[in-house]
Protein 1
Amino acid sequence: MNIYAIPLLKRRIKKTWYDFLYSLFLNPIVEFLKSRIMLRTGGLIIAGLAALAYYKYSKMSEEEKRNMANNIKAKGRKLYHQYVPNNMKNMFAQGQ
């Protein structure tokens, strides 16, 4: 074996151990932190949208609130009649 090849072999082993340790311990930690940052940002956006919706709803008149509720109910009924199979509708009707 060549004398000069031993340090190269040691460096190669250290690099593979480093890669192994990185993929085993550090990479999951980094990925976890990235996901936490994305969750915080997404949560902040959702909270902002909820606050905006609450502000707009609080500024509506009673008639506008009633119209909005009736509109949502009508859309829900339409989706129910359009997508729920008849045998499921009959099961729900029997429970009433």
Protein 2
Amino acid sequence: MGVPKTKWSPEEEEALRKGVKKYGAGKWRFIQKDPVLGKILNQRSNVDLKDKWRNMYPGHSTADPTPDSDDDDRKSGSRSRGKSAGGRAAMPIAELNPYQQRFCLRARVTTKSQMRYWDKPTSKGNLFSVDLLDASGEIRGTFFKETADKVFPILEEGKVYTFQETSGRLKPANKQYTSLTHEFELTFGNVTVEACDDDAGISQIKGDWQPLSLFSDGGGPRDGNLDVVAIVRTAEPVGTIISSKSGKELTKREVVLCDDSGFDIRCTFWGDVALKEDAFWDKQPTLCAKGLRVGDFGGVSLSSGFSSQLLWDSQDQPRSVELRQWWSEGGKEASTMGLTGGGGGMQGRDVPFTERGVLEDIKSRQLGYGEKPDYIGVAATLNFVRSEKLWYEACASEGCQKKVVQNTDGTWMCEKCNSTSQDCQRRYIVSCTFIDDSGQQWVSAFNESALELFGKVDADQLAIYKEEVDGEDGKFEAYMKQFNFQRYVLKLRVKAEVWNETTRVKASIADVKLCDYKAESAALVQALA
């Protein structure tokens, strides 16, 4: 029982006002169970709350909302709530708790998952999730079955909506699958969603941004999630792996992120992000990433996950603007120390003249035998190109790049896209040798690298020429010889692979530039000084 004879303190009265504003008049037990307000009102019974409310606002029934709530907000200094499109007060996300089913949110969709389906003996259905952000905080929300079908086509990432809910349910958040700090996650039930004008008061993304130097000298976490703002320094070609758990083919792209703290780190992106055009990555965008997974593979590395939030080239985030300015004012040329793998930081940047090796180092230093690839910078001369197989026929659909098979009618079939097209897109996959004063090395050059070696002549153009001179002995081979004996500055990716129980070290071009003899001479003079 409460202590009705004790005089109410101003703090208790204010807690009662907030409780009625949050839950509604008459919801005394909900107010008592509130994790914050309940501690202040722990000496009061539900009858005490009801009687005090009537004394504070005579003439108002317990079903009335808070009288003169705007005046109360001004007097107490609390933040007034925004209004939804329909005029109903929008509740701050930070105030959501399991004792509420009816509420209105005004929030930005920061991430939206794909629709997922399940079909079990006992049930089947579909769902998708969103991360919602307002000025007070963030929460994960999930839609099921008919509600998911209705709402999925309405919501777009980055836009602001109101969510009028009459039967929502909140439960403790599963921190294994979300990087958000809210104590609860939301399941929508009977919800009405309306698009709103953009709200400058709700940021595009909200993170606890950490510098990459957090991991220096073995520091920082080796699991969990991390929020970073960084520049994409380099990006490798898109690739695929087979999941050991599901057996499904997964698309991935590995990039190197760096920032102005002097470090770089390898990060893996999956799915649609990995399939972004190479031109997107070549622009070296700025990334605000919330909820990247931290791993200890090869030192420390990052990867995007289902709940990661990614914002590219933001002009609204001060840290993003600051980093882009650093990059344009000389940061692009700055050396960084690698945090991932055995490449000694070399994988994420141009290799300085003084740090280059020679081709013989690949064997003598036993590069490529670690868990992660090794990287080495060399200056070498292209002396042979195997011309028998220079390209493969790839799907012409944007971002696919999977090998296609020609049908009997001349069309091309892509199993991944499950589609047929009239044309294919040829992409280079070249085997060649480079030499320097220490020896020779077989090297693989994929599409972007081979374009540099072949003077920007793409594989489709080369295929047409080969067809034109077909039957003229040696003409095509003579044409290809013009590309030999050019000197390049290379960054090689070296990794040992097992094939038919035999281990072979394979080198592929991660970056290639035609040798600038003037710059090379100046660097040599400086190194000798």
